[in-house]
Amino acid sequence: MSTWQLASAYAGAVASSCSIALALNTLAKKVVVSSAIGQALVKGLVPYIAVATAGAVNVLLMRKNEMEEGIAVKDLDGNVVGVSKKAGQLALFQVAVTRVVLPIPVIIMPSLIMNWMNRTAFVQRNPRLKVPLEAVVVTASLAAALPLSISLFPQVSHVKASDLEPQFHNLQNSSGQKVETLMFNKGL
Known about the structure:
Strand order of the largest sheet: 1-2
Number of strands: 4
Largest sheet: 2 strands, antiparallel
Helix content: 55-70%
Strand content: 5-15%
């Protein structure tokens, strides 16, 4: 990718994230929530939605050539049989979903857990432990988030040949059998 493409993808992700965060902050101030957990949830949703949107937009902008030009598709023996725009679109969809799921444990869970922990007798008796406990909760959330979100879809995805462009519908393998399933690397 050129420097211009990288800069425009980054700018698009930042602009969408900031715009959404500002709009949601304005809306969140108007929402009346009586419970402490509800307030924590509303506070956590604004940054979550902004970060999730930025991640998805960034993937789509950074890898839009995969939607437009396609990605390599292989048979089950690992031989490249062509380039598919539909496989590229599927790969980007899978990665975008991963980027939307990734911030859930990092942004929402620590807020909910710390809200609950701060009301426990243990933390109220030991207020100096709030910061170390929060660091542990955030670290655990980060450690869990990436593997969980990446595991939603396999790195090498399988797709029916009939779900791709017509040139993949009647492929035959080296034994002369019709190829029913193809593979592609979805990327990260």
